[in-house]
Structure of Chorismate mutase:
Amino acid sequence: MTDDVLARYRQSIDNIDAALIHMLAERFKITQAVGAYKADKGLPPADPGREEQQIERLRRLASAADLDPEFSEKFLRFVIDEVIRHHQRARGQ
């Protein structure tokens, strides 16, 4: 039945969304530790060179995974901007 097929697709999407949220939560726990470390060492919140390397790396991964590299870059830029905001907050900026 079509409704069963759609329900299975949606269940898979829901499972993937849950995994994404948990992975993002773990990522932000690590980046918050990085922000605290940077604040303690007087390092700047942003590292443009590292950001560019990551964007290029994820664009390549996206291409290999048949995902639009432009989308992956936009997504990563959003995450990076949020991380930088957290790092600035850790420095009291």
